[in-house]
Design a protein that fits this description.
This protein has about 120 residues and is mainly α. It is about 80% helix and about 0% strand. The protein starts with a helix and ends with a helix.
Length: about 120
Amino acid sequence: MKDDLTRLKHIRDAARQALEFVSNKERQDLNENKMLSLALVRLIEIMGEAAKHISESCQNKYSRIPWRQIMGMRNRLIHAYFDVDLDIIWKVVTQDLDSLLLEVELAIEDLKDQDT
């Protein structure tokens, strides 16, 4: 449980940081700002790596979190790093992360309550 909680916090922190990085930005900024695009890719990789190590029981319990998609995105970025589609990165961060973050935060609170 403790490892799952730690890894969920890693996902939460990476998602928050990605959302902060795109605040007041536009899609075109990814093309013009290499640091921004590399940072977002890395944060998505971190989320995927953390998700990969969440226990199966935790994944089953919090099934509203799209575990397979998170891990799949990580695998795609790691193994096809030379062929990253910035449109997909932008969509993930600007359209998908808010709802993911909400679900992850709910899971963290639930796990914290179970530890007390």
